[in-house]
Specification:
The complex is a heterodimer. By secondary structure, chain A is of the alpha/beta class. Chain A folds into two domains: about 190 residues, P-loop containing nucleotide triphosphate hydrolases (Rossmann fold, 3-Layer(aba) Sandwich); about 140 residues, RecF/RecN/SMC, N-terminal domain (Glutathione S-transferase Yfyf (Class Pi), Chain A, domain 2). Helices cover about 45% and strands about 25% of the residues of chain A. In chain A, the strands form three sheets. A six-stranded antiparallel β-sheet of chain A has the order 2-1-4-5-6-7, with helices on one face. In chain A, β4 and β5 form a beta hairpin. By secondary structure, chain B is an alpha/beta fold. Chain B has a domain of about 100 residues: Dna Topoisomerase Vi A Subunit, Chain: A, domain 2. A four-stranded parallel β-sheet of chain B has the order 4-3-5-6. A two-stranded antiparallel ribbon of chain B has the order 1-2. Chain B starts with 5 loop residues before the first helix and ends in a 13-residue tail after the last helix. At the A-B interface, α4 and α5 of A face α7 and α8 of B. The complex binds adenosine-5'-triphosphate, magnesium ion and zinc ion. Zinc ion binds next to α4 of chain B. Magnesium ion (MG) binds next to α1 of chain A.
């Protein structure tokens, strides 16, 4: 599967753009702040119906404009699908596939799988458990659409229950009969999530370990420990036992919304004890394992977006990654680089892949040939 | 915009308060009324006043009514042993249009949603319980409650809550079937709906009798 063509109208710093892509390697070069990452984000948006970088949809609309449109042509085997995401200031986001609007955006997720490796990935190590849940939920949502439906319902029930807890706390009185349906909903949707996350780790770990080893030649043992406070032997009782504290704190403390994935290296916390290099390898291995898992589930290769990754990698990790590229481990690839000559040199010997360069500048992107970049 | 008459301006202002009507459409409607017979406008004005002053909620089922008791509750041919619980008056109209139901109704006025600040006391739940309880002592009360509430999460919560409240009365409580729409294709039905349809599947009836 690959993205043949992209059109943008008022997306971030692009007033109006139309680009045809290579099914193999697309390299976006240009100065800092020119809009390279924004282009990757547009591709990401088409795949997952949201930006990879901010949660407020309206931030994707070009400043002072009222409407943005992203349109893409995805080709798989002989079929071409059009996907269009549009957003009018103050209105609901609209996603259409082959000119037909989705009833739920979640139905779109996973059709055109994607993996993004970006500089802010380190958040997943450094930040709180939410970023890790989001990361793994993002993978699961792309391979298991009932999982995503369940997750959305769970989050909704949680919001309702917490809102009710707040009311109880304000009124100084708990209505157990009213709380019960929400507690049951949390279990109804939460227990399958727990089960699925466990199962997922069994599938994901071997892929992850493989990539980590491959990137480092290291002897250290890496591990991802899935942690939950929801005891599935008697969850009803657990929820009941915590009720008083839930009311006092005005939020639900037990459940899969508190799950975490502990990253470990030789049995110790990666965040606290891992070296910079170990952390980098860990992150890339996380993403490459995501790529493999999506490919296995879909039966075709996801699109891979690499944002400024060359700045971050040392020679060895870079060489390993290029081995994967030249060995056709990946399908369509989008790469950004602020240093054109570096990318041009890296890709120039890949005779079997079609490499296309785009020069990005002030809201435009134009194809350029490799020789011009090497001359500069 | 400049209006040649302040009466037109006033009319435009009022009409444009209606949902889905902007000032342009409002002006077109106002000018249209001016071109028609005066009686037509009076009839419209009167209809609006009557709508506001003469319709009320049925004191029994809370459906919209012209008098204390609505036409459905007042109809002796309706089956008083069944009450169908719905969210709003539009639902009553929708079910009436099917001509498949001959019992009474109870209009809740919404569903439970703490996020929006709607709790049981904001809905006509107590009066439903009273109808069921009162009927019991008089002997002629409902024997069955049908919950016809939207299959949303809030709808489910409300149905669950109602079921708990009504259970002690020992009457039959059922819920309308939910699942694949007639004429819909399985392939395009979302997993949750399809899953539900499989769990609440019905016996295949080959004898042509009505199913229970
Ligand atoms: N909603 C928006 N409307 C207009 N411009 C925007 C909007 N959002 C972001 N921008 C602009 O886009 C530019 C950033 O683009 P982007 O992050 O893609 O740059 P980049 O080429 O990846 O740079 P770097 O090499 O530094 O990573 C900034 O100049 C920013 O002001
Ligand atoms: Mg960038
Ligand atoms: Zn009535």
């Amino acid at each position: 599967m690959h993205l043949q063509k992209l059109e943008l109208l008022n997306f971030k710093n692009y007033p109006d753009l139309s680009l045809d892509f290579s099914p193999d390697i697309n390299c976006l070069v240009g100065a800092n702040g020119s809009g390279k990452t924004n282009l990757l984000d547009a591709v990401y948006y088409l795949s997952l119906t949201k930006s990879a970088f901010h949660t407020t949809d309206a931030h994707s609309i070009k400043h002072e404009e009222a409407l943005m449109v992203i349109r893409g042509w995805f080709k798989r085997e002989e079929n071409v699908d059009t996907v269009q995401c549009s957003l009018q200031q103050g209105q609901r986001k609209l996603v259409m596939r082959n000119r037909k609007e989705y009833e739920r955006l979640s139905e779109h997720v996973g059709r055109y799988p994607i993996v993004l490796i970006a500089p802010n990935d380190t958040d997943v190590i450094r930040e709180g458990s939410e970023t890790r849940r989001k990361f793994f939920d993002g993978i699961l949502s792309q391979i298991d659409s009932p999982y995503l439906q369940n997750l959305l319902r769970y989050n909704h029930a949680l919001k309702q229950r917490n809102s009710l807890l707040k009311t109880f706390s304000d009124q100084g009185r708990v209505q157990h009969d009213l709380l019960e349906p929400f507690t049951l909903q949390l279990l109804q949707y939460g227990l399958p999530l727990l089960e699925r996350r466990r199962l997922f780790m069994q599938e994901y770990m071997p892929l992850f370990e493989h990539h980590y080893r491959n990137l480092t030649d290291g002897e250290e043992k890496v591990f991802i420990r899935y942690e939950t406070n929801l005891d599935d032997t008697n969850p009803e009782k657990l929820m009941q036992d915590n009720l008083q504290r839930d009311v006092a704190l005005q939020r639900t403390r037990i459940g899969v919304h508190r799950d975490d994935y502990a990253f470990e290296i030789d049995g110790f916390s990666l965040k606290k004890y891992g070296s910079q290099g170990q952390q980098k390898s860990f992150l890339i291995a996380l993403k490459l394992a995501q790529f493999d898992l999506l490919r296995e589930h879909k039966g075709f290769k996801p699109i891979l977006l690499l944002d400024d990754i060359f700045d971050k990698l040392d020679d060895r990790r870079m060489a390993r990654l290029m081995e994967l590229v030249s060995g056709h481990a990946f399908g369509q690839l989008f790469v950004t680089d602020a240093r054109p000559e570096r990318s041009a040199r890296l890709f120039k010997d890949l005779s079997e892949s079609e490499v296309v360069y785009f020069y990005v500048e002030k809201g435009t992107a134009v194809p350029v040939d490799e020789q011009t970049l090497l001359r500069d | 915009m400049q209006y040649p008459s302040q009466h037109i301006e006033k009319a435009v202002e009022e009409i444009s308060k209606l949902p889905g009507i902007g000032r342009k459409t409002a002006l077109r409607l106002a000018l249209h009324l001016l071109r028609r017979e005066e009686t037509e406008t009076s009839a419209l004005a009167q209809a609006l006043i009557d709508l506001r002053t003469k319709t009320r909620n049925c004191s029994n089922c809370h459906n919209l009514a012209d008098s204390e008791i609505c036409s459905i509750c007042a109809n002796p041919r309706r089956d008083a042993s069944v009450i169908c619980v719905v969210e709003n008056p539009q639902d009553v109209m929708a079910i009436e249009n099917t001509a498949q139901y001959h019992g009474l109704y109870h209009v809740l006025g919404g569903v439970i949603s703490p996020i929006e600040g709607v709790g049981p006391s904001d809905l006509r739940i107590d009066s439903l319980v009273n109808r069921v309880a009162g009927g019991n002592s008089a002997g002629g009360g409902p024997k069955e409650i049908i919950l016809a509430i939207s299959p949303t999460m809030e709808g489910d919560t409300t149905a669950f809550y109602l079921t708990r409240k009504l259970k002690p009365f020992g009457i039959r409580i059922s819920s309308i079937a939910r699942g694949v729409p007639v004429g819909g294709e399985l392939e395009y039905t979302d997993e949750i709906t399809l899953g539900r349809s499989i769990l609440s599947r019905t016996l295949y009836n080959t004898s042509g009798e009505d199913k229970e």
